[in-house]
Amino acid sequence: MNNFYNILYKIRGSIVKHSPEILTSLGITSMIASTVYAVKVTPKAKKKVDEFTSYNKMIYKKGNLNPDDFKPKYTELIGLVWKDYLPAALLSVSGASFIISANHINKKRNALLTAAYTLSESTLIKYKDRVMKDLGTDKAKEIDRKVREEIKLDKKDNINHKLNKVDEKEFIIIDSFSGLKMPKGTTLNKVESVLNSVNKIMNYDMYVCADEWYDRLGFKHIPKCAENVGWKLEDGLIEITQNPGLDEDGIPAMYVNFINLPKEDYYKFS
Prior knowledge:
By secondary structure, the chain is an alpha+beta fold. It folds into two domains: 2-119, no CATH class; 136-258, no CATH class. The chain is built from seven helices and six strands. The strands form two sheets. It has a four-stranded mixed beta sheet with strand order 2-1-6-5. The chain has a two-stranded antiparallel sheet with strand order 3-4. A hairpin with a 4-residue loop joins strand 1 (172-175) and strand 2 (180-181). Helix 2 (19-62) runs antiparallel to helix 3 (74-135) and helix 6 runs antiparallel to helix 7. The model has no long low-confidence stretch (mean pLDDT 76).
């Protein structure tokens, strides 16, 4: 008996998990069935309309009226055939409902994921700020390095070996903050050069917007996460780490990470 309930529980979980796909499939199937049914009943409906028209023309003729003057009203035609097309209409409405429901579930799940991601990102930023404030930049950098080493310890040697075989101009460099690959041809030397130039701007203006970083690296579009955030000099110069890893396709890549993440209100001073 327990096995039976376990099976039912697993089936229920699978249905809930894949409900958007199931609802979308039902919606498409209902739409197709609606079209097929409508095509199937059309000859029958047409026959009813033709018989109705012929009968009324005969009445006109008996009443010494011109049969060609008879024009059936739309309400009369609908009254004749609505029952024939009712199943097709119901299938069409149910199909639309299935697709709308699937879209609603997807939107709700995406909203929850976005909220969870935002909360996680906010927590991470606060944690990094606290570590830097309490332990200092050098210690924060060391902790960051150790954490990344633990996460990728089993892959690191293999990744480094592969990166060493690839020309620096050819391997992928990824900006961890935005998650985007840097423009083709970007080298680590260029990354360091851009870092120095952005820090130079901050030294002069006391703050710098994050879009300077992406603009100088050659990004065609400034990532949304970089809008309205930046660094201020009183928090220290911008520092980065370079960590080998794998991109989403499993290709060796170098990840560039900010030690001190950009913040909102970077232009305000305490």
